């Protein structure tokens, strides 16, 4: 952190996610120097790291990290801070969309969604908060979803995992008031990525680059929740009050 | 540390109000509490803080301990015959001036504000408008009581050249200073004789300063690079010295010639919207400053306050920069590298961030300390609001130019330098580190500045 680059070092949990990479690249364009990528697929991480380096990241570090191996999270987070120095932003970008149809039939598939998206995020948040409190400053940005706002027939298993995550980080944000640590909940609508390639695009669809820009701007102004695109805030504040039969029909 | 139900955590920034971090802030009542505070510092360490006038992150320590010296503000000894004063480290220069000026003494070096502590003045080894003649603050310091984690001792420049040199300009990283013994300067009056003249361009200014500096004790130039309609820099040069009795008119002579007030006129009560300082308001302000100065040199009497500390009359003036704050980029380049001065202004203008206030000064002496800032050459202090244009990139390339020219940026002002250039700009860094490590083998002394620039090894 310096006076012109409030975010100089970034830890991306879910380093191969397209939104994670786009956000890291966006921050590098705005002066970030050190990127720590944490993820399961080390080869894929390496490729992301090379692209970031080619785009100006001075230092890229890779850490093996599995969102579902919650017993390892404390150690992974501790090392990310102790080996590479202060972290100005931790971006929780991992998550899976799953297959709603399968998840409705298979408890294991449903649980995999919940474990990755909700449990995994809660499990990294606790040590992240400890480390950030210890350094007296920092941001935690977490990828929630518009689906967290109101469950939909078409993806409620995914939506419920994000709703749990969303509620957890909102409360966490309040608990950290005055600590120097800032939490931001990111609620994108439909984002064109490899995760959503087989889903039909929804209205107000957006791109990883647009999400990245919104994240950077949100962090700069210390936002608590951001919607991407911004219009979704107003759309969803209407949608959440629609009568259920009507909501079911239009979604 | 005493247990207390009061939460002692506070978010701190430097004077530029950027990059806040949270620290445990303690204010020892007596110097003998310092050792205990240091020994119980958390893993993020401890750093002393005075009045928080460093622009950047020198006196903040995120997640660690910040030892504020504000309660240690007594004058311990003042000899009006010899002109030597000993004060606790939290004593402000303003309070010291109030105490000694009626006896015909003044502080030997005045930075741009009276609101700095003795400890801070030593830790940053501050300079003033008389640097070309009288050197830095620490050149007039006879002794310092320093509490390092390894030992506490009273050190002098002669008996402990290494430790003194590492502490003068050491940014608080060699220990907490508890007292400072300062040699004062004799004055006959509390008035200044100032010769003011405006100059139409940078070249004329440099020539005038080179020609005249040595004849005046004080010299400083205000530079405006916002003049519209032409790619030109213009300046107001102030040269001066302390007025003697003969310089006063009979009316002033009849009054107490040493009478001195340092009240403020107004306070900026809250931060103004970030857009208040915009190109139009700044151009208007700079126009007024320039027009007020005469085209041919005019000499007159002025008070110590307006001469040395023009901004002190507005308390909390840093709030005019709004929420995003501002930074001051101060660098020095040796004589012969004058082109960097022009390049600095050009680069900032091109980046869309022309400075709101610029001050040029000719240095004459090298600082004694290992991390001392001054060297014979030109120093330029540029106030820049944060947020406009591509300031980060512009200043990073300016850093390179300054380093290439053999110059350096001032750590007391810095809030953004990248660590790679520190050893280039401060060639005695390795020497300083060796002394620092002896005083603080456990790595207790840390600050946001020291971590950002990797000045001291990170603690395990």
Radius of gyration of chain B, CA atoms, in whole angstroms: 21 Å
Main structural class of chain B: alpha+beta
The count of strands of chain B amounts to 21
Shape of chain B: globular
Shape verdict of chain A: globular
The helicity of chain B comes to: 10-25%
The value of Rg of chain A in angstroms is 17 Å
Provide the spatial order of strands within the biggest beta sheet of chain B. Answer: 16-12-14-13-19-20-18-21
Give the assembly state of these chains: heterodimer
Task: Provide a descriptive summary of the structure in words.
The complex is a heterodimer of chains A (251) and B (460). The mean pLDDT of chain A is 95. A seven-stranded parallel beta sheet of chain A has the order 3-2-1-4-5-6-7, sandwiched between helices. The longest helix of chain A is centred in the middle third of the chain and has 29 residues, at 107-135. Chain A has helices at residues 18-29, 42-54, 73-84, 100-105, 107-135, 156-175, 208-221, 232-239, 244-250, and strands at residues 9-13, 34-39, 59-64, 89-92, 138-143, 181-188, 225-228. With 251 residues, chain A is α/β, with parallel strands linked by helices. Chain B has 460 residues and is an alpha+beta fold. In chain B, a hairpin with a 4-residue loop joins strand 8 and strand 9 (152-155). The longest helix of chain B is centred in the middle third of the chain and has 14 residues, at 279-292. Chain B starts with 8 loop residues before the first strand and ends in an 8-residue tail after the last helix. In chain B, 51% of the residues are buried. Chain A binds chain B through residues 1-6, 30-31, 33, 85-86, 133-137, 178-180, and chain B through 9, 11, 16, 18-23, 43-44, 56-57, 61-64, 325, 327, 386, 391-393, 395, 415-418, 448, 451-452, 458.
Give descriptors for this structure.
heterodimer; A: 251 residues; alpha/beta; 7-stranded parallel sheet; 48% helix; 16% strand; B: 460 residues; alpha+beta; 5-stranded antiparallel sheet; 14 helices; 25% strand; globular
């Amino acid at each position: 952190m310096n006076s012109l680059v409030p975010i100089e070092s970034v830890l991306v949990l879910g380093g191969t996610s397209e939104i994670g990479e786009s956000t890291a690249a966006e921050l590098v364009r705005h002066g970030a120097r050190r990127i720590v990528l944490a993820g399961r697929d080390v080869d894929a991480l390496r490729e992301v790291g090379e692209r970031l380096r080619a785009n100006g990241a001075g230092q890229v570090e890779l850490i093996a990290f599995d969102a579902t191996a919650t017993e390892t999270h404390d150690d992974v987070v501790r090392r990310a801070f102790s080996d590479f120095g202060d972290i100005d932003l931790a971006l929780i970008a991992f998550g899976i969309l799953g297959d709603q149809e399968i998840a409705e039939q298979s408890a294991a598939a449903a649980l995999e969604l919940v474990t990755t998206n909700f449990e995994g995020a809660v499990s990294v948040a606790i040590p992240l908060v400890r480390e950030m409190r210890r350094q007296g400053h920092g941001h935690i940005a977490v990828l929630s979803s518009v689906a967290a706002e109101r469950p939909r027939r078409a993806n409620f298993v995914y939506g419920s995992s994000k709703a749990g995550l969303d509620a957890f980080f909102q409360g966490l944000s309040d608990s950290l008031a005055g600590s120097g640590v800032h939490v931001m909940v990111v609620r994108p609508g439909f984002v064109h990525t490899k995760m959503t390639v087989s889903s039909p695009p929804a209205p107000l669809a957006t791109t990883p680059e647009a999400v990245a820009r919104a994240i950077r701007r949100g962090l700069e102004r210390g936002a608590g929740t951001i919607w991407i695109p911004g219009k979704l805030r107003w759309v969803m504040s209407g949608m959440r009050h629609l009568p259920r039969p009507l909501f079911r029909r239009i979604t | 540390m005493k247990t207390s139900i009061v939460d002692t955590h506070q978010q701190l920034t430097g004077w530029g109000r950027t990059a806040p971090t949270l620290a445990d802030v303690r204010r020892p009542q007596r110097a003998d509490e310092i050792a205990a505070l240091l020994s119980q510092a958390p893993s993020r360490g401890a750093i002393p803080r005075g009045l928080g006038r460093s622009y950047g992150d020198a006196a903040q320590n995120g997640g660690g301990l910040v030892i504020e010296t504000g309660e240690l503000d007594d004058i311990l000894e003042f000899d009006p015959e010899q002109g030597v004063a000993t004060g606790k480290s939290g004593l402000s220069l303003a309070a010291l001036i109030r105490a000694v000026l009626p006896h015909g003494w003044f502080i030997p070096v005045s930075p741009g504000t009276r609101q700095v502590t003795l400890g801070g003045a030593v830790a940053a080894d501050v300079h003033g408008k008389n640097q070309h003649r009288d050197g830095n603050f620490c050149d007039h310091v006879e002794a310092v009581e320093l509490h390092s984690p390894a030992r506490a001792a009273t050190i002098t420049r002669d008996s402990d050249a290494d430790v003194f040199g590492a502490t003068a300009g050491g940014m608080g990283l060699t220990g907490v200073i508890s007292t400072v013994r300062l040699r004062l300067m004799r004055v006959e009056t509390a008035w200044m004789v100032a010769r003011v003249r405006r100059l139409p361009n940078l070249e004329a200014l440099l020539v005038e300063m080179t020609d005249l500096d040595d004849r005046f004790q004080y010299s400083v130039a205000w530079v405006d690079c916002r003049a519209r309609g032409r790619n030109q820099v213009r300046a107001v040069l102030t040269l001066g010295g302390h007025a003697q009795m003969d310089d006063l008119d009979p009316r002033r002579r009849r009054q107490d010639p040493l009478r001195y007030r340092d009240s403020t006129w107004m306070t900026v009560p809250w931060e103004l919207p970030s857009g208040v300082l915009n190109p139009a308001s700044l151009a208007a302000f700079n126009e007024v400053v320039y027009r007020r100065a005469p085209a041919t040199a005019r000499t007159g009497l002025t008070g110590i306050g307006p001469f040395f500390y023009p901004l002190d009359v507005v308390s909390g003036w840093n709030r005019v920069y709004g929420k995003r704050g501002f930074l001051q980029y101060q660098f020095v380049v040796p004589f012969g590298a004058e082109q960097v001065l022009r390049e600095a202004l050009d680069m900032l203008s091109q980046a869309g961030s022309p400075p709101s206030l610029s001050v040029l000064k000719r240095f004459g002496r090298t600082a004694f300390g290992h991390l001392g800032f001054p060297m014979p050459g030109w120093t330029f202090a540029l106030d820049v609001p944060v947020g406009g244009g591509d300031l980060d990139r512009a200043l990073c390339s300016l850093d390179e130019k300054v380093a290439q020219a053999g110059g350096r940026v001032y750590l007391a002002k810095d809030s953004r330098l990248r660590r790679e250039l520190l050893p280039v700009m401060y060639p005695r860094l390795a020497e300083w580190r060796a002394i620092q490590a002896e005083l603080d083998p456990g790595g207790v002394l840390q600050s946001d500045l020291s971590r950002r620039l990797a000045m001291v090894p990170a603690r395990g």
